[in-house]
Specification:
Elements (H helix, E strand, L loop, with lengths): L1 H5 L21 E2 H15 L2 H10 L6 H22 L8 H22 L5 H8 L3 H7 L2 H20 L2 E2 L3 H25 L1 H10 L10 H14 L16 E2 L8 E8 L27 E7 L5 H8 L4 H4 L2 H5 L4 H7 L4 E5 L14 E2 L9 E2 L2 E2 L19 E7 L33 H28 L5 E8 L4 E2 L5 E2 L9 H4 E8 L3 H5 L3 H6 L5 E2 L3 H8 L2 E2 L17
Parallel strand pairs: 1-2, 4-10, 4-11, 5-15, 6-7, 6-10
Antiparallel strand pairs: 3-16, 5-14, 8-9, 11-14, 12-13
Helix pairs in contact: 2-4, 2-5, 4-9, 5-8, 6-11
């Protein structure tokens, strides 16, 4: 009998008992190491989850609230045990647990520092982030966090003395651990099912904070999205009947759409902000400001394709939008040149068939430095985009760098540094909130300058070219409200700061008459709610493009058209 027991014991591999291991500590079993790792992840890498749970519960805490909190802690531990339960092989468990810890540390930095959620959309955004934006996020604070909360614990896991027995014994022990954890979870669920089920239904988004399993699942989903799925589907033609109706004796027409970046309406002086962050636009004759405008999404990758799609926010998905023509395709098909000038990370697939010009890496010594350019670069050689032929039209899109964080101080020149002290650090959490807001407000001041300069250029040509300028941001930004920074939260979770965006319009002197638009009517309706959904149809009609796909109810100017 003794020999049969001893035959089940496996001699520990030399690599796990070498002099470099932490041999002064007691030797752990495989389940013990797993539970210690789970304990570490629960107590140090899921602070954002617990903060979300606490915020979801009413105050003051009573017995029921404490039971919900305790239940979710146990559920988290169970989820992590289940996620790592299959790691019970001698040469697999340590490296796998170390990887879990490293991933958790990376995710917890962004979740705790910026209050973000790492879901599929956020990871897709990361795949589309350019090197300059990525470098702003990978700060010294990031590396110190990963070193202390990821690399160091992973090194300790690698060096801990570990004892493995036969595969059969380890498998039985692991199954027993999983069974115990699941039984405990079932007891908790059934003992307070009504309370937990109601709380769970009302707070489904809390699951997105579970670290690292939620980010790892999101990563898997994002990678699956990128995998080839056979031949691309045939591009769906949208508005195949579209045709431009032009007056051959009319002046040329230029429609300019400025796609802002990360600008939130709350910090625009035009919208009643306490600071005058829009000093030039506030005194621009004829400017029409829309104070109640909503974005389609909370990140560029979602919002930019959405604002050029016919689908609208309710029906939009990047997969559906990429399988059909967008506004640029339709406009180009009617013979109107479409020009996309970009000072950002690209057009997110919108201009893939119509082309674009990138100014992000220009070498203009006045406007560019360290591989980035300020947004005035978009106005360089502006005369070249002006239509010259009577009755013709051009559609110009200017895609700003705008107020993209966290390195707000890189988005504006010294001339726009109106509010100080401003945060001069990409790790905004190291600055006071006042410094962060000052830096952000300076980006709005610079956007004000750029838009005012654009209007001046359009006004200078108004005797020969009718023009309309529209400006709208792709999404907003959080600046520390409730501990949340930046943007990209799922829309169901996003605060108004990330979805309430600035929008404005300007018509050159003779454009309203040429377009048969009553400007006084437009001004009277400017406070009505609007959104990115309005852009598709509004621009079609401004360009006099007729199609059955046009929806007058979505056109900002349709009710102000003169007969």
């Amino acid at each position: 009998m003794n020999s049969s027991v001893s035959s089940e014991v496996v001699v520990v591999a030399p690599a796990q008992t070498s002099a470099s291991s932490l041999s002064f500590l007691p030797t752990l079993g495989a389940n013990q190491l797993l539970l210690l790792t789970v304990l570490y992840l629960v107590t140090t890498q899921n602070l954002s989850l617990f903060e979300a749970i606490v915020h979801s519960l009413p105050r003051p805490f009573g017995a029921q609230e404490w039971r919900i909190l305790a239940s979710t802690v146990y559920a988290l531990a169970t989820i992590l045990v289940l996620a790592m339960a299959g790691l019970c092989l001698p040469r697999v468990q340590k490296p796998a647990l170390a990887i879990f810890v490293l991933i958790s540390a990376v995710c917890s930095y962004f979740m705790e520092s910026f209050g973000t959620v790492i879901d599929r959309a956020m990871i897709a955004n990361a795949f589309n982030t350019d090197v300059h934006e990525a470098s702003d996020l990978l700060s010294l604070a990031f590396f110190m966090h990963v070193l202390t909360q990821g690399v160091l614990p992973a090194w300790i896991i690698a060096r801990l003395p570990l004892r493995f027995e036969s595969f059969g014994v380890e498998l039985r022990r692991r199954l027993a651990l999983v069974g115990i954890m699941l039984c405990g979870l079932l007891i908790i669920l059934f003992s307070q099912f009504s309370t937990l089920s109601f709380w769970g239904r009302e707070n489904r988004s809390v699951r997105l904070y579970v670290n690292p399993t939620a980010p790892m699942y999101a990563m898997k989903e994002a990678v699956v999205d990128l995998l080839p799925k056979g031949p691309p589907p045939t591009l769906l033609s949208v508005a195949p009947d579209a045709v431009r109706v032009s007056n051959p004796t009319a002046k040329p027409l230029l429609i300019v759409l400025v796609v802002g970046e990360t600008a939130r309406a709350a910090n625009f002086g035009l919208n009643g902000y306490a600071r005058n962050t829009t000093p030039r636009l506030s005194t621009t004759p004829g400017l029409i400001n829309y104070p109640n405008f909503e974005s389609c999404g909370t990140a560029t990758l979602q919002s930019v394709p959405c604002m050029f799609s016919r689908l609208g926010q309710q029906e939009f998905s990047r997969k559906k939008a990429s399988a059909e023509e967008n506004l640029l395709d339709i406009v180009a098909r009617t013979g109107v040149p479409t020009i996309w000038r970009d000072n950002n990370a690209g057009c997110m697939g919108v201009c893939v068939r119509t082309g674009s010009v990138s100014f992000e890496s220009e070498s203009d010594p006045k406007l560019c430095a360290d591989g980035e350019c300020h947004d005035d670069i978009l106005l360089k050689d502006f005369d070249a985009v002006m239509p010259k032929t009577a009755g013709s039209a051009h559609f110009l899109v200017l895609h700003q760098k705008g107020s993209h964080g966290p390195a707000y101080f890189k988005r504006y020149p010294e001339s726009a540094r109106h509010f100080t002290p401003d945060c001069r650090n990409a790790s905004v959490q190291r600055c006071s909130r006042e410094e962060v807001v000052n830096a952000y407000d300076n980006t709005i001041v610079y956007t004000d300058t750029m838009l005012a300069d654009l209007i001046e250029q359009l006004r200078a040509h108004q005797n020969s070219v009718d023009s309309v300028m529209l400006y709208v941001s792709d999404h907003g930004e959080s600046l520390g409200e409730n501990g949340i920074y930046l943007h990209g939260l799922p829309r169901s979770l996003a605060p108004a700061e990330q979805t309430h965006v600035p929008m404005m319009a300007w018509f050159s002197a003779h454009a309203p008459a040429a377009l048969k638009i009553d400007v006084s009517c437009v001004k009277a309706l400017r406070t009505q709610p609007g959104s990115h959904d309005n852009l598709f149809d509004s621009i079609l009609d401004l360009l006099s493009i007729r199609t059955a796909a046009y929806k007058p109810t979505q056109d900002l100017f349709a009710s102000c058209k003169k007969q």
